[in-house]
Automatic annotation (TrEMBL):
It comes from Nitrosococcus halophilus (strain Nc4). GO terms for cellular component: cytosol. InterPro entries: Alpha/beta_knot_MTases (IPR029028), RNA_MeTrfase_TrmJ/LasT (IPR004384), SpoU_MeTrfase (IPR001537), tRNA_m1G_MTases_N (IPR029026). It is an enzyme of class 2 (transferase). PANTHER family: TRNA (CYTIDINE_URIDINE-2'-O-)-METHYLTRANSFERASE TRMJ, TRNA/RRNA METHYLTRANSFERASE. Its EC number is 2.1.1.200. Signal peptide: none annotated. This is tRNA (cytidine/uridine-2'-O-)-methyltransferase TrmJ. The keyword ATP-binding does not apply. It catalyses: uridine(32) in tRNA + S-adenosyl-L-methionine = 2'-O-methyluridine(32) in tRNA + S-adenosyl-L-homocysteine + H(+); cytidine(32) in tRNA + S-adenosyl-L-methionine = 2'-O-methylcytidine(32) in tRNA + S-adenosyl-L-homocysteine + H(+).
Length: 242
């Protein structure tokens, strides 16, 4: 089963007990790679107590200062959200996410990202995710505890892995797929260039950049394609400066 390349990323967790319970949920389903982005309290005895034997996951957890750091090197990122958004984003339910996670993990690192207990992931954090994932639940009461959401997703990933998966079908390529950090570097370069040529309002770039992110995420850029695009951007910048 291709579970060794699956990261569970918890962003801004405020209650250490939820970290421990999430580690327990992961351990029961064979997941072992826990990343924590700016946890309010960790390490913590309460996290260890709630882990109920999954102490090793806590000891090996990666502590990160930003979401880009936690997902660096990944080929695909999924973001969990129970809230509706003003702008549409490619969406999957939990089962489809589990299947696609296992497929993609056959070829590289994959991350499933969970937000804060009270507010979830911000739109800016979701900008780093290829897909928005929701867990179908009672529409009259759709709020899931953080550790419960981790348990649901860990279960779906395990079931998909046990069923077996083939690597995702890809068109013939000339170079490997670009990682999320390589694509993020391109997005930063793109935003700066669009500002310099006067196409993007520097005081409010988020909406247009969010739509451009969706466009390029759908393209599944290769490393060579990222290099070509960045070369075009550099040429445009030089033209403006010259």
């Amino acid at each position: 089963m291709s579970l060794a390349k699956v990261r569970i990323v918890l962003v801004g967790t405020t209650h250490p007990g939820n970290i421990g319970a999430a580690a327990r949920a992961m351990h029961t389903m064979g997941l072992s790679r826990l990343y924590l982005v700016n946890p309010a309290r960790f390490p913590c005895a309460e996290a260890t107590a709630r882990a109920s034997g999954a102490d090793e996951l806590l000891a090996q957890a990666e502590i990160c200062t930003s979401l880009p750091q936690a997902i660096a090197g990944c080929r695909m990122v999924f973001g969990l959200s129970a809230r509706s958004r003003n702008i549409s984003w490619p969406a999957l339910d939990a089962r489809a996410c589990g299947a696609l996670t296992v497929q993609e993990a056959l070829e590289g690192e994959v991350a499933i990202v969970f937000g804060r207990e009270h507010s979830g992931l911000s739109n800016i954090e979701l900008d780093h995710c290829h897909y928005w994932v929701h867990i179908p639940s009672n529409p009259a009461y759709s709020s899931l505890n953080l550790a419960a959401a981790v348990q649901v997703m860990a279960y779906e990933v395990r079931m998909a892995a046990m069923a077996g998966a083939s690597p995702p079908a890809r068109r013939p390529t000339e170079s490997p797929p670009a990682s999320v950090d390589e694509v993020e570097g391109f997005f930063q370069h793109l935003e700066q260039t669009l500002i310099e040529i006067g196409f993007l309002n520097p005081s409010n770039p988020k909406l247009l950049m969010r739509r451009l992110r969706r466009l390029f995420f759908r393209a599944h850029l290769e490393i060579r394609e990222v290099n070509i695009l960045r070369g075009i951007l550099t040429a445009a910048q030089d033209k403006v400066k010259g």
